Amino acid sequence: MALEFSPEARKRFAGIVGRYPKKEAAMLPVLYLAQAEFGYLGTDAIEYVAKIMGVSTARVYGVVTFYTMLNMKPIGRHHIQVCRTLPCALAGAEKITALIKAKLGIDAGETTSDGKFSLLEVECLASCGTGPMMQVNEDYHENLTEERVTEILQSLK
Q1: Which of 47, 70, 87, 136 has CA 20 to 30 A from 144's CA?
Q2: Per 3-state DSSP, what percentage of the chain is helix, strand, and coil (rounded to 5)?
Q3: Angle at 118 between CA 2 and CA 75, to 5 degrees
Q4: In which residue ranges of the chain is CATH 3.40.30.10 found?
């Protein structure tokens, strides 16, 4: 099935592209729009964005695979991203990730069978002084302990 933006999304697309001197410069905000519209950026969505942006599918794929906030497959209702860069790693991020994996029964890059949770290990989330930390959807959770992570997961169920 060929994807297409809804009339509202097409209007937003025109507004986004109109803010940039070159259409391709709008790639990232257009990808955010497509992800919001389609839920994730699968092959059909990537091909559609390439078509409307006038660039190759490979160009769009390169952008999508570079940014961890762009998802190529469906994610859970609660998308958990654990920072794994050095400051968080030194503060115990591996222990936090291991706990989440054990509690949810999934590995990094997976989604629970009920679609409630997905887990991803990511690079810096720009909260280096408060690690270990994770982002759940749009919310940051910092200075994490195993007890705090357990509380957070329980509150999301």
Answers
A1: 70
A2: 50, 10, 35
A3: 15
A4: 78-156
